[in-house]
């Protein structure tokens, strides 16, 4: 560092004495003009110039001095009594550069001709080593700054020696807050106790239970939150002391994605199961309702007819139940249209208020504009009604239900957390109640069909499952958030469209009369009881009927010259050929042949997405519905 040291005044000849005393060192003495007056043997060895070659030369010219500051400015400071020390560049006689640690001090500053005594030390190798170390440290720091994994270095006592920038972001501490403290601060119990035991056992026995092995543990952030992490520990020895380097990877997002995938797979499997069950139930209900329908005209006794009507109503209730099962399995029929969700909810709010009762306040909030989504209006209203009923049951003493509607954009990062959810614009409907909330075990099963926390006889457990299946069928997403004693929020994401559109129309039946016919119809149905009911209904309505139990025998009839006006076939049949494949072959054999499909599944596309829904009838159906659909095709 600069100082105020001044060499006391001495006779001119004393410079010769000084030069002789320091002859073995690298000392140069030069005057105000920089001309060298004394050149030691040490300088001869250091620079390669002999004394006779150096004396009389300007020192900065001879050695081609390179300094961060102008030499003349430095010389003025030194003559003012300030000692100057710094690194400069000198060149050897052979031309190679050297890094020199130099120290200049004025001699006899009060003399008219003061001199500068300059001592020099070659630090080229030292500085090169230091530069290399600094470069390596900068390189390592750069690598650690870009590596997504966090790094924490500790000593044998558990004291933190290094804390990477990624670790700062992960744990919420700055390195200044952590370095020097025990690494236990980053761990919750019981992991902190296990860590101490592992390290102590390793230092005592040499058996590595955690060294070089990745394992899943828990970390503790500065805010006290606990999170899952993968920890891998490496070991090194420095100055005969061990240091341990921990590489940490946050598993929060990965575990959430894995759980979402498991949940999605589970719901998909349950959906397939319930869809299959609904198909079988619809076949049974077709037989039950069909026979009841044909039995009614045969009963003269009013009490018997009343009992029969109760049975018919029970069959209709069964059909509604299977429809809910099909909704969960994403196999319900939809009438999609471009719907302004905000306007729909505004118009629907009065019904929701009546449903909730006087003790529950309904609030709606519509943010922004353009809330159009392609949805089935009635199914969306049904879903909202189900959510309102659940909210009402969760608030027996009153509360509030809030519906927030907004248009949001889900980016790729968000979509990656939820399987089957593409990024893009969505209409978000957030339904929030201030009810009792759900414990974790209930949240995990909330969307499963038939799961309910209500007492026996109250509810079917299909409300949330219907909402889940309906939204998934539209390509949307459902999110559940609930806290005990605070409330529940169901967030529905519906794919948005740019502007309002026109409702997709479908043909409907006229319930005022059941038209008859005289055409010949080929009925293909593998279930004998269902086939028997269909044949009886068609015969009663005046049609001529041919029947077949599978596609193969139906093709045989179609290959004959037997007149056939319409093919009425089930879609899902055994034997390797489905109803839609049968229909394609039948039309090739008989161009212009009319085809009516039926299925216990709610969506014709379960077999082939290209089938026109206008040529389709869902089981169970009434004789009236069958007659209307036949006339729509045949006429």
UniProtKB/TrEMBL annotation:
<dbReference type="InterPro" id="IPR011006">
    <property type="entry name" value="CheY-like_superfamily"/>
</dbReference>
<dbReference type="GO" id="GO:0000155">
    <property type="term" value="F:phosphorelay sensor kinase activity"/>
</dbReference>
<dbReference type="Pfam" id="PF00072">
    <property type="entry name" value="Response_reg"/>
</dbReference>
<keyword id="KW-0067">ATP-binding</keyword>
<dbReference type="InterPro" id="IPR036890">
    <property type="entry name" value="HATPase_C_sf"/>
</dbReference>
<feature type="domain" description="PAS">
    <location>
        <begin position="136"/>
        <end position="206"/>
    </location>
</feature>
<feature type="domain" description="Response regulatory">
    <location>
        <begin position="520"/>
        <end position="634"/>
    </location>
</feature>
<feature type="modified residue" description="4-aspartylphosphate">
    <location>
        <position position="570"/>
    </location>
</feature>
<dbReference type="InterPro" id="IPR003661">
    <property type="entry name" value="HisK_dim/P_dom"/>
</dbReference>
<keyword id="KW-0408">Iron</keyword>
<dbReference type="InterPro" id="IPR035965">
    <property type="entry name" value="PAS-like_dom_sf"/>
</dbReference>
<dbReference type="InterPro" id="IPR036097">
    <property type="entry name" value="HisK_dim/P_sf"/>
</dbReference>
<keyword id="KW-0902">Two-component regulatory system</keyword>
<keyword id="KW-0597">Phosphoprotein</keyword>
<keyword id="KW-0349">Heme</keyword>
<dbReference type="Pfam" id="PF13426">
    <property type="entry name" value="PAS_9"/>
</dbReference>
<keyword id="KW-0418">Kinase</keyword>
<dbReference type="InterPro" id="IPR000014">
    <property type="entry name" value="PAS"/>
</dbReference>
<dbReference type="InterPro" id="IPR005467">
    <property type="entry name" value="His_kinase_dom"/>
</dbReference>
<dbReference type="GO" id="GO:0006355">
    <property type="term" value="P:regulation of DNA-templated transcription"/>
</dbReference>
<feature type="domain" description="Histidine kinase">
    <location>
        <begin position="276"/>
        <end position="498"/>
    </location>
</feature>
<dbReference type="GO" id="GO:0005524">
    <property type="term" value="F:ATP binding"/>
</dbReference>
<feature type="domain" description="PAS">
    <location>
        <begin position="14"/>
        <end position="57"/>
    </location>
</feature>
<dbReference type="Pfam" id="PF00989">
    <property type="entry name" value="PAS"/>
</dbReference>
<dbReference type="InterPro" id="IPR001789">
    <property type="entry name" value="Sig_transdc_resp-reg_receiver"/>
</dbReference>
<dbReference type="InterPro" id="IPR013767">
    <property type="entry name" value="PAS_fold"/>
</dbReference>
<dbReference type="InterPro" id="IPR004358">
    <property type="entry name" value="Sig_transdc_His_kin-like_C"/>
</dbReference>
<protein>
    <recommendedName>
        <fullName>Sensor protein FixL</fullName>
        <ecNumber>2.7.13.3</ecNumber>
    </recommendedName>
</protein>
<keyword id="KW-0808">Transferase</keyword>
<dbReference type="InterPro" id="IPR003594">
    <property type="entry name" value="HATPase_dom"/>
</dbReference>
<dbReference type="Pfam" id="PF02518">
    <property type="entry name" value="HATPase_c"/>
</dbReference>
<dbReference type="Pfam" id="PF00512">
    <property type="entry name" value="HisKA"/>
</dbReference>
<comment type="function">
    <text>Putative oxygen sensor; modulates the activity of FixJ, a transcriptional activator of nitrogen fixation fixK gene. FixL probably acts as a kinase that phosphorylates FixJ.</text>
</comment>
<keyword id="KW-0547">Nucleotide-binding</keyword>
<keyword id="KW-0479">Metal-binding</keyword>
